[in-house]
Design brief:
Distance between the termini: 74 Å
Helix content: over 70%
Shape: flat
Strand content: under 5%
Structural class: mainly alpha
Mean pLDDT: 79
Order of helices and strands: HHHHHH
């Protein structure tokens, strides 16, 4: 029986329950590990396309969209690490100057694309939060764990911050 992807949400669960009932009647010794709750069709998503595949595609698209802005910001940082004639500062300066020579890059690559990533990401996170009970449970569990080990997390954050500061000071001392 071919199923249309426009069937109402929850219809896939009813079919799974019917199959499980039939298997239980016909093969009582056969154990069933149900994954039917994961196969429920989400409204607006064609059958055969999993939500995890959609999330992976959205993640890949967001990485591609944010890459030009990340490249520019990285170039700004790297060009100040050492004098311009040396690499990688020279290449970073060329990247920054390429962006500076083209006014459209500010609007498209540094504002529009990151804004698109922000909007798409926010919408994806809201949909995931609404549709995925496991995600909500994992978030609650994570927050409870953070609360239980808050002092240790502050020690870890302070340690990482100190390491980062020492690294920046060392780079500054080496470049002067």
């Amino acid at each position: 029986m071919a199923r249309s992807w426009r069937e109402p949400p929850g219809h896939g669960i009813a079919i799974c329950v019917e199959i499980q009932a039939w298997l239980t009647r016909e093969a009582p010794d056969f154990t069933i590990q149900s994954t039917c709750h994961r196969r429920e069709q989400t409204e607006g998503v064609p059958m055969g396309i999993s939500l995890s595949a959609i999330k992976r595609a959205v993640a890949a698209a967001e990485v591609l969209l944010i890459f030009p802005a990340a490249l520019f910001v990285t170039g700004l940082f790297v060009r100040d690490l050492q004098p311009q004639p040396f690499e990688p500062a020279h290449t970073a300066e060329r990247v920054v100057m390429w962006y500076a020579a083209r006014p459209w890059t500010l609007w498209v690559l540094l504002i529009a694309l990151p804004f698109a990533v922000l909007v798409i990401g926010w919408a994806t996170l809201i949909r995931s939060w609404k549709d995925d009970a496991e995600l909500r449970q994992a978030a609650r569990h994570t927050l409870a764990t953070i609360r239980a080990h808050l002092a240790t997390l502050f020690v870890a954050a302070a340690t990482l911050t100190a390491g980062g500061i020492l690294g920046m000071v060392a780079i500054h001392m080496l470049t002067d």
